[in-house]
Design brief:
Elements lengths: L8 H9 L9 H12 L2 H5 L1 H8 L3 H25 L6 H8 L2 H37 L6 H4 L10 H15 L6 H22 L15 H12 L7 H4 L8 H31 L17 H9 L11 H8 L3 H35 L18 H17 L2 H29 L12 H17 L3 H25 L26
């Protein structure tokens, strides 16, 4: 039963052949694509979170997360090249491992994208509030810009941006590739400027002790900072447009992740070396959980004079080292760039719902199209309400961790699917073959499991509750209504632009 109800792979591939794409991408273009997709939100908003968990050891956390991403990306690339339709882990799983596991992957992706949109909304709020307070000298009460875990009541700016993006999605606004390219340039320029100003004033004594909370803290930070890397699958899913994919895909994947890791290490070094990044400890010497009431109280008592207390770590750091106006520009860059990421996350989440609905696994109302705007307005509004509530009441670190739990599950499932298909169908044409598959895929699965294990117990418990709800929904509703289960397989892959391929820049 576990591998039953497989969506016919040959039929999906027949659809894909009708829309084959011109192979024009080389290794350099793939690397640039990956850098643009990966560098983004995570490094802006999770630096303080990583510092509170690992201190200066967060530099090692970036390396661990990058290595896990690299092996997962190589597995992802084989599946994306072989099943070049929409690029979704949900689609891959349906074609290889059957409906039940595909449902669980899709259910995990729903959690990933909706919660990630909430995390980015909270990150946007932190930078915009800091910008308003430092440029316009408006003192905004914490009660209105932080959730209850963070010493406030409700995060109104985060709720507002989530509502605005929902409205844009309902009326059918999607950013163009040119706009996205401009936003990528803004993000990369902002980070380059930060490195240029912060790295020269580093003090080596700020790196001691390197791992104040031990390797457990480094692992916990790696599990959180994984959020800063997601987006590499944009390269994986470009296999169909790649010249000589067997050579160029690994170069593009490993190259982009290597460049991003170096970028992140330089940003982390700039923060640690210039202002220090030691975690705030409790009365018994234990590290206080990021996003906790206890940490918020300690930060309040210190007047928020530590990078781990900041909601806009990079802008705060530049202000502390004597570059207040450049710090404000960093805040402005984040304020401009992050809403597009929220839009793409919510777009991806609604399309996952949309495709699962069209497969019969969710109610047909979810795939209802607005007569005027031609968008799936019902599920977009439901998603918008959920994202706004997440953003209003939860801190960015908790949301990023919950999102990571869904991502790690999906990536491990794809790595497993590659192994299964190598055994079940070894002769099928593979435009790209994962090198050393019987070593790479197990490392990917174990790496995802390691990072998942290092998430907080609260996060793991929430994921297990979500998974249990998913199983109940599947066996009480979806299984009996599945189109594949009824013997009716409709293929509409032409318009099924579901994530991760269509939604690269969540990091």
């Amino acid at each position: 039963m576990l591998f039953g109800r497989v969506k016919p792979l040959d039929a999906i591939l027949a659809t894909a052949e009708k829309k084959s794409l011109h192979r024009s991408l080389g290794a350099f273009q793939l690397t640039m694509l990956g850098i643009g997709a990966v560098i983004g939100t995570g490094i802006f908003v999770l630096t303080a979170e990583a510092a509170q968990k690992a201190g200066p050891g967060m530099m090692l956390s970036f390396v661990i997360a990058g290595v896990v991403c690299a092996v997962a990306a190589l597995c992802y690339a084989e599946m994306a090249a072989m099943v070049p339709v929409s690029g979704s882990a949900y689609t891959y799983s349906y074609a290889v491992m059957g409906e039940l596991l595909a449902w669980m992957v899709g259910w995990a992706l729903i959690l990933e994208y909706a919660v990630a949109a909430g995390a980015v909304s909270v990150g946007w709020s932190g930078y915009v509030v800091g910008l308003l307070e430092n440029v316009l000298h408006i003192d905004i009460p914490d009660l209105l810009v932080r959730g209850p875990y963070d010493g406030g009541v409700i995060n109104l700016p985060a709720m507002m941006i989530a509502g605005l993006v929902t409205w844009l999605l309902v009326i059918g606004t999607r950013e163009s590739a040119s706009v996205n390219a401009v936003l990528v340039v803004i993000k990369v320029t902002a980070l380059t400027l930060f490195i240029a100003l912060a790295v020269p004033v580093m003090k080596m004594e700020n790196f001691e002790p390197f791992a104040p909370l031990g390797f457990a803290g480094i692992g916990a930070a790696a599990a959180s900072i994984f959020f800063a890397y997601v987006g590499f699958d944009a390269v994986s899913t470009a296999a169909e447009e790649t010249k000589n994919p067997q050579r160029n895909m690994p170069i593009g994947l490993i190259g982009s992740l290597a460049v991003c890791t170096i970028f992140y290490l330089l940003v982390a070094a700039g923060v640690i070396g210039s202002v220090g990044a030691q975690p705030i400890l409790g009365a018994n010497g234990e590290g206080l959980a990021p996003g906790s009431v206890a940490l918020a109280q300690q930060c309040g008592a210190m007047g928020d004079q530590a990078v781990v207390c900041s909601k806009e770590a990079l802008a705060w750091t530049l202000r502390e080292i004597g570059w207040p106006q450049i710090g404000n520009l960093i805040g402005l860059a984040a304020g401009l760039a992050l809403p597009s990421v929220i839009l793409m996350m919510m777009f991806g989440q609604t399309r996952i719902f949309f495709v699962m609905s069209r497969d019969g696994l969710l109610p047909e109302a979810f795939s209802k199209i607005h007569p005027k705007y031609n968008t799936p307005h019902v599920i977009t509004m439901i998603t918008g309400v959920a994202v706004a509530l997440f953003a209003a009441f939860f801190p960015v670190g908790k949301l990023a961790d919950i999102s990571n739990s869904g991502t790690l599950f999906a990536f491990a499932a794809v790595s497993f699917a590659v192994l299964v298909l190598r055994r079940k169908d070894p002769d099928r044409r593979r435009p790209f073959r994962t090198p050393l598959i019987w070593l790479t895929a197990p490392i990917s699965i174990l790496g995802c499991a390691y990072l998942f294990y290092n998430l907080s117990w609260e996060t793991i418990r929430l994921f297990l509750i979500w998974a249990a709800i998913g199983l109940v929904v599947y066996f009480t509703y979806s299984r009996s209504r599945s189109h594949v289960g009824r013997g009716s397989v409709e293929l509409h892959e032409q318009d099924a632009d579901v994530p991760p391929s269509s939604v690269p820049p969540i990091s």
